[in-house]
Every structure is written in C-alpha cells, then in structure tokens.
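dumping these here so i dont lose them again. two proteins, back to back, each one seq then structure tokens. dont judge the mess
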Amino acid sequence: MEESTTQQAFGPRIAVAAFDGWNDAGEAASGVVTALRAAQPHELVAAVDPELFFDYQYTRPALRLDGEGRRVVDWPEATLHRPQAPEGFWTLSGVEPARAWRSFTSEFVDALLAEDVTGLITIGAMMSDVPHTRPIAVHTSTDNALLRNQLELERSRYEGPTGILGVLSAAAEDAGIPTATMWASVPHYVAGTTPSPKATLALVERLGDLTAREVDPGTLPTEAAAWEATVDIAAADDDEMSDYIRQLEEARDAWDSPEASGDAIAQAFERYLRDDPGKGRPPA
C-alpha cells in the first residue's frame, strides 16, 4: 500500500486503541499496544478517573510491593499516550469500562482531538473456531467512505451487541476522526488460558501494512514460534485434541481456497461477533 494513499486517508497522526476484557482474547489486542510502547518512548497525556468508570468487584485493584518494600495499590485505568517520535502511534488502552460508556468515550475523543489525531485504528481479538497451526486471520473494516475507497477496506454489516471498541469507533467518526477496526481470530482452545503472541504479531503486521509504516515487532516473532511449538506439543499428547485441530485445519483450508468468496468470509466473521465468543469447544 503506498504511503501517500495512507497519509491521505488517515493523516499523519494515527492513534491505536485496544482494551482488556471482552475485546482482547489471548491478550492479543492489548499486546499490540504493549509492543508499540516498547518500541519507542511514549508520554502520558490523558487518563480517566477510575472511580467513575470501573466496577472494582468485577475489575479489582491489585496489590504489589514497590522497590522499597511498601505496599502499593494499582487501580484499573485507561490512558492515552503520545509517542515521542513523529512516526509513532498514539496509544489508547486500559480496562473496558463497566459504566458510563458515553462519558468515557467522550473524554477520550476530546483528548484525541486536543492531540490533533487525524486517524484512529481500534484493535480487538476474539475467540474463534480456528487452528493455531494456520496464519491468524485479521479482519479489517471501516464505516468511513474515504478509508474504504482509498484503502480498499470492507464495511461491516454487523448489527448487535458491541464492546467499547464499537462505541469508541462510532464516537470518533462522529467527531470527524476517520476510523478503521481490526479483529484477530484467536484459537479458542488456547485463548482463555495464555497470551497468544502469534495473534499479536498478525495484528502488528497488519497495522504496518494498513498504515504503510514500519512497526517494530520486537520479540514477537520468536514468542509466536515458541507459542505454536508449545501448543503442538500439548496437542500431540491428546488424541482428542489432535483430531479436533485437524478438523479446524480442514475447515480453515476450505476457507482459504479460491472458491471461498470475500462475502462468505465477511459473513462468517460477523457470525463470530454475534455468537458467544467462547462457545466453541473440543468434542466431548
């Protein structure tokens, strides 16, 4: 994708948003923000008051000991950070709020506007009936006509329950910030137990392609290879799991065949969003 096309579509100041919780299977989406902040220095520019937006019985604060052995309480948070390098990404991340979503998104959209952010990419990850042995699928869509035309993106036809990413995307578009959304499909049989660096790597690579920018993957390639090898070993000791993974591989290979249309793939993605993200399980 040519850099000039991306610059015209998103503009020069791009923010990336990902949140813990329902939107973050295998910690794949939040892992993108972690990778971006590890690649270059960022500075905090906005944060919400946790008392207004989080339910501490659902997302509890955590205790830790600081360098001097004193007990410290870490409260749930959501923050916006500015990159120090001009080619970097603004990063918006934290815990999905439990209440007052309109006020929450309003605060951050105001902060994005104050930072003169010209484009927003929201990132999510969902548990799906896909095998860990195949490339991680990343579905990219936008409601913005300019982005669809210039970057050849699809428009999502999904209707139904949404997470904070959907609300934030709609609010940013209403405020005049062009917005696109990326979702990774994470194998459900591992997404609920361990981080999935292979999915994070797929999102990082797609982010670089979408924005025509160099995005440093850091140690993700090595972590992704180790993760896949570990799951291979675990599956090899379980005949039932091995058979189940082979079924998923056959389904994925059919999905990737030339006969599979773009419309069929988009419809399957939207079914994933409508369904319970964790309903898929190996056969009993």
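---- next one ----
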Amino acid sequence: MNYYIGIDSGGTFMKAALFNAKGEQQGLARVSASVINEKQGWVERDLNALWGNAVDVIKQLLDSTKLAPESIKGLSISAQGKGVYLLDKQGENLGYGIMSSDSRSLPIVKKWLEQGKAQEIYPTTLQTLWTGHPVSILRWIKENDRNRYDNIGAVMMSHDYLRYRLTGEVSAELTNISESNFFNSITGEYDTALLKSFGIEEIRPALPPVVKPQQQAGKITAAIAKETGLAEGMPVFGGLFDVVSTAICSGINSSEDTLNYVMGTWAVTSGISKQVTKEEHNFVYGHYAVDGEYIIHEASPTSAGNYEWFADYLGENGELNHEENQKLVEALAPADSSVYFVPFLYGSNAGLGLKSGFYGLQSHHTKGHMIQAIWEGILFCHNVHLDRMRQRFPKANILKVTGGPASSPEWMQMLADLTGMTLELMDVDETGSLGAAMVAMVGAGEFTSLKECTQAITNSASLIEPNPENYSKYQKKYKNYLRLVQLFKQFEDEIDA
C-alpha cells in the first residue's frame, strides 16, 4: 500500500494527515498557528514560525504512524487563499507574511472602487476587489514601505512558501494564483497591463512560474529530510487553494446541479462549471483542479467562527458545549424569536467596514435564544451567497455541506428548512488535508485523473430533507435580517460621514 501526506495550512491550525491510497486516514497531527496583530487591521504571520509549525506536524505525524518514510509517495498542501508571503532577492524571508484577513489596504481598495476599477478589471481577472488580494497588499507596501517593496524577489501565497521551504523551488500554484488579480483568467497567464493598472508593474519579475495542483513542483531536499524525517527525493506536488480542496472532497462536478457549502471561519458556497457566463452579479471564477473547469464561489468571513467567538461568554472554561446548546435551540420554536444576530465579527458580505451586533434582545430572552439567533444569523449570511449562486446555478437542488456545524442535526435542519434544499453531509473531517493528498495521489500516478480519484474516495454520510412547514417562517425572518443589515449599513455610513 502506498501512502500520501496532505498538509492543511489554515487560519487557526496547521494540520498534517496521512492517507492510504484508498483515501483512508491513517493519522493526524495538528498544532495551533499563531497570528500577529500588532496594529489595527494588520493580520500577519512570522514565516519562520509558520515553517516551524509545518515541521512540527510532519514530525508528529511520522512519529505517531511509524511508517517507513519510503512508503510515502507524495505530499501536497492545501492552504488559505490570497494574502502575500514574500522572499527577498536572495531567497530569504522578507518581513512577516500578510494574511488574507489583513485589511490595512482598505483606503486603497475604497479609492479603486470609487474609480470604477472593479468593473474595469473584471473581464480580465474574473475577480472582485478586496483588501486580502495580493495586488491590494502589494500596493500598500509600495506606498508605505518602499525599501521592502524594492527588495521583493518572489511573491507567493502561504502554500507556495511552505512548498519552497520543502523543496527549495519557487513556484505559484494555479488554483490560488488565479484569484490574485494579477492573473489573466482567460489566457491563464500573468498580465502586465493589470499590474500597471494597479500601479505595481515593478513586481512582474518576482512572479513565480505557475504549477498545476497535481504537477510535481520539487522534491524533498537532503536538509529537509534530515529536519522532518521525510524521505529525501519524495515528490512534492503543487497543492490547492483550500476552497478547491473542499470542493474536491465534496464530490461536486460540472453538472451544475449541486453546490458545496463550507461552514468554518468563512462562509463559502461553490459550484463547478466549464463556462464563463455574463451575469448581473460579478461572480468570482478561479481555475479548478480539472483542466478547462472553473470553481465559482461566493465567500465571506461570516460563518461558524462567529459562533466560536462566543466561547468565553456563552460557554464554560472557554469552550462551547455544543450538545447542550443544541438542546437549548431544539426546545425553541423555529424562527419565532425577535432576536437577530449580524455575524460580522471578522468582516461582512454587505459592505466594507460593517460591524457585528444583536438586535431585539429583551429581558425574557435566554441563552438558548442567543444561540439560536447566532446560528440563524450565520445561516442568513450563507443564504446571501446562496441566493446569488442560484442565479448562476439554477438547476442546483442539493447542498453538500462540510465544516463543524455539519455535526449538529438541529443546525443542519435549520439550514435545510431555510433553503428548501436537500443537504448531503459529507463523511470527511479533514477536507483540506484529504484534498491535498488526493492531488498528490493523482500526481504520483495512483489514479489516472482527479475524477477517478474522487469517485473512488468521496462519499456522503447522510441526507437531511427540508421541512416545508418551516420554509416560510425562515424566509420571513431572513428578509427581516436583510432589512436590519441595511440599517446597520446606513448607520455606519452616517457615523463615518
């Protein structure tokens, strides 16, 4: 039996999992990934600490599984998208890595939006404008730290950086770099005109060659083999944007009748298509792990992370008791409370700078009402994205759901009732690691294609059907939620005026 390692470099944890060629998990190691918040809006990572996390999880995994390193035939990495991780012209770390949740470039992005740049670039990039895009961050560095900007030798994202440390080879992985906004999504190449449009044309020589997810991008060096315990010469493959990794594990395809829901820190709704269509809404199109296909997704940091944030306030000893909370919510009538929660603790999907908050609390409301409102608010935010995606995927009638909330039957029934769609709950705990391992399997020749690999490995755990009696109740409260968000927006505009 051959084995493969998938590394998942997320916002909270670094994980490494070992899978056999059947996709069966043989071991898992994880460590907390530290984040640096030195200034308002700055979200960074020490690059040496990030690499140290990767070394730790690899060593822990190998120690716990006791496999001969030679039986591991490949490794790849799934990671957060966007952000900027820089090397200098000597190949050394150039400052901290800047994560996609960093918002220091907000004034720049607002100015671009006022200038109409979003409409200008969309036909080329198939991307929106956002503070976490590499172009926004690089423009901020150019304006505020020119010495650092002038010394940029390579522009990468987090999995590109980790792959560089493993192999010594500089490259940029396709599914992630295609959503950078300096990549021409039609030609599949970097676009100098785009760089000039953003005022960062000087970094063109620092943009690495592009590799596909299942393409070999280097080998484990002798020094890294000694440091980690991996076999020298083991292939390292391109890897994946974590949204793509989850889509692969869900089993969605270009039939366009099924969508993938990711419920984590981010609310992500994804679909796969072979076509770029013109719609009233500018959908984000990224290159998928299958040639000729796009992953189309709507996303915002408005999902289950907003629930976890309340652990210190609604939990015990800093942890939420999910089983108890489910019972509290289950005892309440569906969508009957006057309490609303707007889950914008980490960002919004209704405009830049909007904040989170409760509305409708009164003295008779209980902890259960607050939990219910938090769950509803998160689902409402997801539904904003779903409403848009159903314009692009009108045949979609099934949601394949992954993430922590998928383990809560009550929360999932709420989701089914709100959307009126059948839910498929996926039997995959570590979608980031498994997706990465799957592309390594394809790259190593274990499977002839990603389609073959997906059909052999992925499966759903259970189905949840919507209760038609509750649909109108949730839709009514959802419409009220949207009105409340507009009032939040109006208030924010007035106090900023």
